[in-house]
Amino acid sequence: MSIRIAATGSYVPERILSNADLEKMVETNDEWIRTRTGIEERRIASPEQATSDLAYEACRKALETAGISGKEVDAIIVGTITPDFVFPSTGCILQHRLGAEGAFCFDLEAACSGLLYSLEVAYSLMKTHPKKYKYVLVCGAEKLSSITDWTNRNTCVLFGDGAGAILLENTEEDGPDCVIASDLHTDGGYGDILKMPAGGSRMPATKESLEAHLHFIHMEGKEVFKLAVNAMVGAGKSVLEEAGITPDEVKMVIPHQANSRIILAVAPRLGVPEERVYMNINRYGNTSAASIGLCLDEAVRAGKLAKGDYVLLTAFGGGLTWGAMLLRF
Ligand code: ACO
Asked: In angstroms, what CA-CA distances link 179 with 60, 168, 310?
């Protein structure tokens, strides 16, 4: 038996928020945003859309592409830091909408590393219980606009909304699995440099917490930047070494889309030339757990990946969480 990627899917909301639009909201300018982050525009969900609605569209496309119905899915894992509710989980809401009655479903919170962490859990379940888990749907989905402080220029220019889904299948075919190697990490000691201070049990919502803008993403950008580069390079090198694959054999690197400068600092340190590094941050900004799935689906649909290609995923986010995973198509 072997585990393969049966299909991918993605979705972004229709509304585009450009750098020019942001110039009217905070003291910023297109040139600063483009040169410091690589972002030109981002998508913003409508007030009626919640994270599960974005996730639903991405998952529906993945199921359609694979030609299976929700009924055949055995588990759904949603990586997100912007669930519709604290509970029920986004996974539960999605299960109902997809008609995936037989699936057990939950959310996994690992910030921008949410998709990699979710893939690791899904793959491990499928490897351990191949008869029980034939199809597992993994989705990274975020409505970051709901936790973005639109009055703070340090953060509001960075984030956007979207969803990316990957359907894994346990097949009867012998051969290598789609997950070749992974290296995931956590360092809770750095939790304070990237967080949403209020809204949890530590600081439930009060008039004061709202007035102090504590229900939004808080970030020490420079500190995060430095740690992100070293962490993603370390994890990336470690999975290549574990797999016995050289950088030349990697068809594509898909890094979490946080900042083009971070991405372009990571690529040469991994020994992979820029042209083999996938970037769509210019169109979508940082969509946290959704970003890698959004890139992967775009690359697949554009015919940029063929059977047998090696794809290196790297991610970094609040927690701190980070890691890398080598996939084989
Ligand atoms: N427009 C214009 N000027 C700005 C803006 C803006 N939007 N934002 C900040 N500035 C100013 C600052 O006030 C500062 O001015 P000063 O020198 O007069 O004080 C100057 O620009 C430089 O600011 P820095 O913060 O030093 O800029 P930096 O080059 O570090 O870029 C950025 C900031 C883009 C946030 C960068 O640090 C970064 O990308 N960090 C990592 C982000 C990340 O990876 N996050 C992880 C994932 S997020 C998640 O997990 C949800």
From this structure: 23, 10, 10
Atom 46 of ligand 1: nearest residue by CA position: 317
Rounded distance between C-alpha atoms, residue 263 and residue 265, angstroms? 5
- Give the pLDDT confidence of 207-263 residue by residue, as tens digits: 999 999 999 999 999 999 999 999 999 999 999 999 999 999 999 999 999 999 999
Tell me the percentage of the chain whose pLDDT exceeds 70: 100
pTM for the whole structure:
0.96
Q: Per-residue pLDDT tens for 180-195?
A: 999 999 999 999 999 9
Catalytic residue from among 218, 256, 259, 280: 256
Query: Vertex 46, ends 315 and 255: CA angle to 5°?
Result: 15
Active site residue 112: yes
| Residue 218: φ, ψ to 5° | -115, 135
Ligand 1 centroid – CA 291 distance (Å): 19
Instruction: Based on the residue annotation, tell me whether 286 is a catalytic residue of this protein.
Output: yes
Catalytic residue, from 19, 156, 286, 295: name it. 286
Instruction: Check if 148 has its Cβ closer than 6 Å to any atom of ligand 1.
Output: no
Q: Which of 92, 112, 139, 295 is catalytic?
A: 112
Cis bond before residue 194 (omega within 30° of 0): no
Peptide bond into 255 cis (omega under 30): no
